[in-house]
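We give the chain.
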Amino acid sequence: MCGKPIAVAASLLLVLLTSGLASGAIKRCFSCRSRGDLGSCKDQFTFNATTAVQEQGVEAIPCASGWCGKLVEGTGSYKQDDYGMATQRLCLQRSPSDGEERCAYTVWARNKVYMCFCQGDLCNSASQIRLKILTLGIPLLLTAINLVHS
């Protein structure tokens, strides 16, 4: 009976650490660039920190700002076959002025691009399920309370 609260607390801590909700760790961003059929940076981007090491030109790099980006340029007349389209994933030197995650058209190096900003470890992959503390925390808290009182 007295081991249950410790096991529950350890489980909650493990879930928080693995979901990226704990603070203090250096965040990483994917870093790569591809154009057309060259490179592995464009969507469908299916790499994680482990598999990116095996792919030439794709890295998971430390990012001091904690803000990652993905930009797509050349989406004009070649959109149907992706010829001339480039996708780049990178670490941003600083956060957006409003601190909001979003995707929008913007100007980058004098070119109109579609860019997404996100905050978090390796958040600039093509698709990521982002868990919020309430989504994850409330069911875990209810389960923990139930286990402690049973």
User: Anything to note?
Assistant: Residues 128-135 have pLDDT under 50 and may be disordered.
